[in-house]
């Protein structure tokens, strides 16, 4: 009974693949990997050939990448030498913060963002907007920050909000 059930599942799976193929690609040639009896055909190969096939990108992929750059590339600024080291003003800004709110993990891991945040810190609206852009995924599918860095960024955002609430409206 179990063997019959397994073969029925395989048969249904092959039938579903054939139906999908017919609806998605009605004029395409038949799939050479599925035999006329519905069984799957396998190609005999050795490990080195299989590894090489997995390591190489699919044909045409590199050409396609050159034709259409990623959608965000035109928005990215060119890299600067200060992207990989903290600026002096950033160190001063970090030291001006209370020890519990200093973004040590951020400064260590992503000095470019720490430098940009230090530049904007004098203008609370600009710093708040920048932190919102960092914390809110508007493009979808972004990886996000490691938890320790995200906690620091959220803490800085809360600090900005508290400081703004203390300032009288002018």
Explain this structure to me?
Helices cover 56% and strands 0% of the residues. The chain has 170 residues and is an all-alpha fold. The protein has two domains: 2-67, no CATH class; 79-166, no CATH class. The longest helix has 23 residues, at 2-24. The termini are far apart.
Brief summary:
By secondary structure, the chain is mainly α.
Helix content: 55-70%
- pLDDT under 50 segments (min length 5)? 1-31
Strand content: under 5%
Number of helices: 8
Broad shape: elongated
Please describe the topology of this protein.
Elements: H1 2-24, H2 47-55, H3 61-67, H4 88-96, H5 104-109, H6 111-120, H7 124-135, H8 147-166
Keywords:
170 residues; 8 helices
């Amino acid at each position: 009974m179990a063997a019959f059930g397994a073969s029925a599942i395989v048969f249904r799976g092959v039938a579903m693949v054939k139906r999908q193929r017919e609806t998605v690609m009605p004029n395409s040639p038949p799939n050479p990997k599925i035999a006329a009896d519905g069984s799957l055909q396998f190609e005999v190969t050795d490990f080195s050939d299989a590894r090489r096939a997995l390591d190489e990108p699919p044909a045409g992929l590199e050409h396609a990448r050159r034709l259409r750059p990623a959608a965000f590339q035109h928005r990215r600024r060119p890299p600067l030498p200060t992207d990989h080291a903290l600026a002096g003003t950033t160190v001063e800004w970090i030291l001006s913060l209370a020890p519990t709110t200093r973004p040590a993990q951020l400064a260590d891991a992503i000095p470019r963002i720490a430098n940009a945040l230090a530049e904007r810190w004098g203008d609370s609206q600009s710093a708040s907007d920048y932190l919102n852009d960092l914390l809110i995924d508007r493009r979808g599918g972004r990886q996000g920050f490691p938890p320790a860095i995200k906690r620091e960024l959220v803490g800085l955002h809360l600090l900005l909000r508290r400081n703004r609430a203390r300032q009288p409206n002018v």
